Amino acid sequence: STVVLVFQAPTLKPLKDRDDSSSEFRFNIRRGDRVRVGEALGR
Amino acid sequence: SSSQGQGSTFLLPGATVATLLMLGALHARRLYDDKKTEEAREKGIELEFQPDVKATFLRMIPLRSISRFWGSLTGIELPIWLRPYVYRAWARAFHSNLEEAALPLDNYASLKEFFVRALKEGTRPIDPDPCCLVSPVDGTILRFGELKGSGAMIEQVKGLSYSVSSLLGASSFLPMIADGDVQEKSSEQQSNLRENSKKSWWRFSLASPKVRDTVSARPTKGLYYCVIYLRPGDYHRIHSPVEWNVLVRRHFAGHLFPLNERATRTIRNLYVENERVVLEGLWEEGFMAIAAIGATNIGSIKLFIEPEFRTNLPRKKLVNSEPPEEQVYEPEGIGKILKKGDEVAAFNMG
After folding, report:
1. How many angstroms separate the CA of residue A14 from the nearest CA in chain B?
2. Are B236 and A35 a contacting pair at CB < 8 A?
3. What is the pLDDT of residue B319?
4. Å from B16 to nearest chain A CA?
5. C-alpha distance from B349 to closest chain A C-alpha (Å)
6. Is the previous residue joined to B258 through a cis bond, with omega within 30 degrees of 0?
7. Do B182 and A12 contact (CB within 8 A), yes or no?
8. Which of B11, B13, B151, B240 is the most buried (most CB within 10 A)?
9. How many other C-beta atoms are found inside a 10 Å radius of the C-beta of residue B50?
10. Hey, are the CB atoms on B223 and A6 less than 8 Å from each other?
């Protein structure tokens, strides 16, 4: 069985619009990693 | 008559031995192929889509019926004395951790019940960081990334992709991607969409005209995806990855092809042809959807937020063009509120 997650999250603004508060979603996983329920996929 | 009797005495064991040898050879060949694939993956060689005759043959097999039969078989109540042996054998074969099971092994009446077992409290701590999105399942990361381009495609394997809209269905909430950017919907538009979603399931889609909120001052949003594969020995319950409102459930009746690595390489559009349940809604950053895709052995999906809902039911004929069955959760616009880590669904055997 397989689960596919699709979600919206902040991405980097175009360079001209960036400021100090700019943030983007980043995955902290790699392909082939084993993950468990509750572990962060990204921040 | 004596020689005839001797002939059948030799013929039967001979045929059995030959069949076993043949099956053994096929299994050895498969293990060898899998090892080669694993080695190639470790070397960073990207696997390519290779349709084969076996994949075509699979379409002719009644996999849904086989799946339901497997479900009935594994649902048979086992004698109490036998249960620990069966479950330990399963755990050994598929690398499950029996220490984590919430109940003693002899409390699970059947293999099916054991398969969807809950875990002891505290065995899956939820990352407390409010800025993180957590894994909804135990499994292996197959793909992840940001969706870009007008098609919003997810790669199944190199050379073969499927669109998000075909996976999730025509969605009222899925943001539109144009020119590489997600077209943000205003809160008023989202509220209208919630109202409209009950009336028609195809109202907006990725292919629909742009809805551009030119005055929005909100930060730029991207659309991301993550594909996680659950092996037979993995814990098979699905949890909420964030705090969110589940507004719609969509059920696509479909095939139940296997979902292993070999199948992803050889069966076209595997994820959009298989039976699946899509939960869709909104979280604080916008759109959120989870698609739970069934396979031959794990054919049905149980929703804890909708206990009466059933999948993998007998059907006369599968029609791919048929729209999915859709359920809008009450109260409209709020739906079912889930906290990060809440149990949402489970994959059942058969």
Report:
1. 9
2. no
3. 65
4. 34
5. 10
6. no
7. no
8. B240
9. 12
10. yes
CA-based nearest residue to B36, from B50, B23, B18: B50
**DSSP sequence for B46-83:** PPB----HHHHHHTTS-HHHHHHHHHHHHTSPPPTTTH
Mean pLDDT (whole number) for A28-35: 94
Give the nearest chain B residue to A29 (CA atoms): B141
Q: Please list, in sequence order, all residues whose beta carbon lies within 8 angstroms of the beta carbon of residue B207, skipping any fewer than 6 positions away.
A: B165
Is it the case that residue B200 has pLDDT exceeding 50? no
Find chain A residues with C-beta within 8 A of B219's C-beta: 10, 13, 22-23
Please write the tens of the pLDDT for every residue from B60-87: 899 999 999 999 999 999 999 999 999 9
Looking at this predicted complex, what is its ipTM? 0.88
- A41: chain B residues, CB-CB within 8 Å: 132-135, 144, 226, 241
- Could you tell me if B329 and B342 are in contact, meaning their C-beta atoms sit under 8 angstroms apart? no
**Pick from B221, B348, B328: nearest CA to B280:** B328
Residue B314: band (very low, low, confident or very high) from pLDDT cuts 50, 70, 90: confident
